[in-house]
Amino acid sequence: MAINAYIKLVPSSLKQTITTDEVKDLFLYYQQITEKTGEQVEWDYEDTAFPYDIKETAEGKGKWFYLSSSHERYNVILIGVDQEVVSEENGEEKEQTYIQITLPDQSVYGDKNKANEFGKFLAKKLQGELHLFNGRVMYYYPRK
Asked: pTM score, two decimals?
């Protein structure tokens, strides 16, 4: 059975909306910084830190994409962007954007570790609210 984690873009987040292309750009940025880390320690760290290829299907264009790996310890992670309606404290309803990270049945334990790592990275960069696979919540935005 597939499991999900969410990065919710709350009113205190840096952005209120995001596209799949912007999420892909954040993954490319992640690859660049891990490559630089590898250069500093003289180790091929980029392939270990991000052992995936970013792929998108025609049916998922603009809604979701997936990270596919050919390494033996990794398989696949799905990433999607959508919106939900939430009620504010004053009773008003508004749309809130979230990034969904899904581990399908064919995902392996290494995928879950990487998905947690990527979720924390994305939530920190966007100052969002990370809902982990185990149901716990991590807050990366300035709280009042």
From this structure: 0.90
